[in-house]
Recover the amino acids of this structure.
């Protein structure tokens, strides 16, 4: 199932959303890679950051969303990145015609339930000494998600909504990624972080956590509930729960967000 992405909504919290990408890639030790791939590159700002970090590298961004790639191409005024529209499930690194030195995937694999089966192929495509770095949210039992499932359960369209909201089941615990990648011949660095994002410090939004999830977790709901009244009812139930779970503080709204990171270095 492919969701319809809205780059503008996704980038409303760009400072917060880019932080995990920066934390992930700071642990990638490649000094002058020839070929770098950003899987699920989205609207491309972070991918362009990779081009700045490694000015001599061929940089490739892969994403399934035409909307996100349009935004990425618009940003890439110097044509620095090869933007490829593809589902990562069918993307074949062999088509690049060269081994890859760095593969990055940040905030993508929660959307790809088969990812544990795909990772070995990506590691195989790495040159000796290459790097595979991934980050996934680990917050599917946080109120932002449990309340979403509660609202779906109360909806007259629960039977259609609930299967679309089972994404958390695709994400494994950190040790699973560590063991998988170590078994593939990599030195592995795995960790988790809970960010305490302070949203909307200026108090301009009536419901900042809802604004955040409109850009990601709510996409499968929006794709199904296209009728305005039906969507408004759903958001009223969900938003009510969110305001209680994430009360506004004098300095903003605190949104705790756990994320899981793994950086694997293929032995030379
Ligand atoms: C949450 S955004 C992450 C963007 C960027 N990597 C970042 O760290 O901000 C997830 C991106 O993954 C893409 N995506 C989701 N499922 C995909 C799939 N199966 N194949 C390729 N891209 C996918 C979406 O289109 C979206 O641009």
């Amino acid at each position: 199932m492919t969701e319809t992405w809205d780059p503008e909504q996704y980038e409303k919290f760009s400072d917060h959303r880019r932080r995990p990408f920066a934390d992930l890639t700071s642990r990638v030790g490649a000094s002058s890679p020839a070929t770098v791939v950003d899987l699920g590159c989205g609207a491309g700002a972070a991918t362009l950051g990779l081009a700045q970090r490694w000015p001599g590298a061929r940089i490739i961004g892969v994403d399934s969303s035409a909307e996100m790639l349009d935004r990425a191409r618009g940003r890439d005024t110097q044509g620095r990145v090869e933007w490829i529209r593809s589902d990562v499930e069918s993307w074949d690194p062999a088509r690049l015609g060269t081994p890859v030195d760095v593969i990055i995937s940040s905030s993508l694999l929660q959307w790809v339930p088969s990812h544990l089966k795909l990772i070995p192929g990506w590691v195989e495509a790495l040159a000796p000494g290459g790097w595979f770095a991934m980050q996934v949210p680990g917050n599917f039992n946080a109120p932002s998600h449990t309340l979403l499932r509660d609202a779906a359960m109360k909806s007259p369209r629960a039977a259609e909504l609930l299967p679309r909201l089972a994404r958390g089941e695709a994400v494994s615990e950190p040790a699973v990624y560590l063991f998988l990648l170590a078994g593939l011949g990599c030195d592995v660095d795995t960790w988790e972080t809970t960010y305490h994002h302070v949203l909307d410090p200026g108090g301009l939004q009536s419901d900042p956590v809802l604004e955040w999830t409109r850009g990601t977790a709510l996409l499968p709901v929006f794709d199904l509930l296209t009728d305005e009244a039906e969507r408004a009812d759903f958001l009223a139930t969900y938003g009510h729960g969110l305001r209680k779970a994430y009360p506004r503080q004098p300095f903003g709204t605190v949104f705790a967000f756990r994320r899981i990171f793994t950086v694997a270095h293929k032995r030379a």
Remarks:
- Residues 194 and 258 are 4 Å apart (CA to CA).
- The chain has a mean pLDDT of 95.
- The pocket of S-adenosylmethionine is lined by residues 5, 17, 21, 40-42, 46, 63-65, 68, 87-89, 106-108, 111-112, 216 (CB under 6 Å).
- The chain has eleven helices and eight strands.
